Amino acid sequence: MRLTDLNSGREIGANCLLLEFGGLRYVIDCGMHPKFEGKKALPRLDLIPGAVDGVILTHCHLDHLGSLPLLIRQNPGARVFASSATTLFARRLLSNSIQVMKRQREESGNEELPLYVEPDIERVENALAAVPIANPRKIGRGGEEVTITFHLAGHVAGAIGCLIEHQKKRHFFTGDVHFQAQRTVEGANFPRQPVDTLVMECTRGATPSIPGLTRATEEARLIRSINRVIDDGGSVLLPAFAFGRMQEILKLLDETAAAGELVDVPIFCSGLGLDLCDYLDEATRKTKQVKFSRKILSELGIRSLSRQYTPPGKNLPEQGIYLLSSGMMVEKTPAWRIAANILDHEENAVFFVGYCDPETPGGELIGLPPGGEFKFKGLDHTSILRAEVERFHLSGHADREELVDFAKSLAPRDIVLTHGDPPARAWMKETLQKVMPGCRIHDPEPGVALEL
Ligand SMILES: [Zn+2]
Ligand SMILES: [Zn+2]
């Protein structure tokens, strides 16, 4: 196998891997960088030397899916292999991506935008092929073939890892993975048989685990904190990815409310996250890959966020829990805009419940000391941070120790690191070299092929 990382930097951005097996050419994921705009946000599709035979889509987060319409426009014959749940979500998330790009164009005047339009999404929809879980499937062309087998990855609804077998060699790709059960998905169910190559995400490679901290203790701490802020008259902003994290938090709030342990206050959600609740409900009924019911929305009396924003700096007119996208508080998103009404007021709080890239507004806010200045570009407003800011460790990504254990159980000859910032990759490389001395650890140079 020849593997080329087409992500343009060693980071979590436009995730995209090119795999070549003899004359066959496959791509795993084709994402869009959340921090960049326009063509800068794309993976290096220009480095693909010819027609692509197929695409494996691990899940529907935009850092894995966002550029797929362009790849399929270039390769109209390529099929997109995905879990059945993923085939239900892809179109809705790509349509939202068009809306975001159109808005960016209005604001920045960038004429490249949107990078694709509805007919491109239709082409993706037509190319999608659902592959059953734990069921080997041969794909190929002209007498050459590989066998792909999907395994649920526990990261978000429909997420998979993939085993690819080619000429007696076994290559396993984790995709984004979470080994413990969450509320909307079971933990990863990966095989533990030996492989030749392990291609592994390392999102949390630079995050030491905290002794005694579990998902249950973090959830309890989050609920206690929400109750305290609301009881003291404040509002809580929970920035969350619209797909996955938002439904996880809704389910947590619902189960807490049913136990009589949640304060009684209005809960507001943003549009895409609410829409996706319907899609997760549908996937729950049609597949065994998700556990979510739209009933939760009526049980919690969820209200959709008004498009009439309060002027920046002024406190929100209605006290509540604001569960809004995006998780990293990317500029112009509902979470970012509502933060402009939250930060100046000491009774309020912002609670982060997922991963934040340090260079996004969310990451910047986490690093800001109390009393610091937070600039809202485009709103002409600077907040003085008086609200409480706290992080809760409810990530959808595996702990670094779990990843090391998983790597050991597969005993590969080569490990390729992906989906991590430089410090995460560095820790992972050093640790794996120590505990698996016979194994070659690769932190691939973007755009440079590795022979495996
Ligand atoms: Zn993801
Ligand atoms: Zn990802």
Count of all domains: 2
Q: Give the overall form.
A: globular
Mean pLDDT: 96
Task: Supply the CATH class of the largest domain.
Answer: Alpha Beta
Report the count of strand segments: 22
Which structural class matches the secondary elements?
Answer: alpha/beta
Largest sheet: 7 strands, mixed
Strands side by side in the biggest sheet: 6-5-4-3-2-1-22
Bound molecules: zinc ion
Features:
binds zinc ion; alpha/beta; Rossmann fold; 7-stranded mixed β-sheet; 21% strand; 22 strands; Metallo-beta-lactamase, Chain A; 2 domains; single chain; 452 residues
Task: Give a quick rundown of the structure.
By secondary structure, this protein is an alpha/beta fold. The chain has twelve helices and 22 strands. It folds into two domains: 2-207 and 396-451, 4-Layer Sandwich (Metallo-beta-lactamase, Chain A), CATH 3.60.15; 215-391, 3-Layer(aba) Sandwich (Rossmann fold).
Q: Explain this structure to me?
A:
This protein is an alpha/beta fold and 452 residues long. It has 2 domains: 2-207 and 396-451, Metallo-beta-lactamase, Chain A; 215-391, Rossmann fold (3-Layer(aba) Sandwich). 31% of the residues lie in helices and 21% in strands. It contains 12 helices and 22 strands. The strands form 4 sheets. A 7-stranded mixed sheet has the order 6-5-4-3-2-1-22. Helix 2 (68-74) crosses helix 4, helix 3 (84-108) packs antiparallel against helix 7 and helix 11 crosses helix 12. The radius of gyration is 22 Å and the shape is globular. The N and C termini lie close together (5 Å). The protein binds zinc ion (2 copies). The site of one zinc ion has 7 residues, from helix 1.
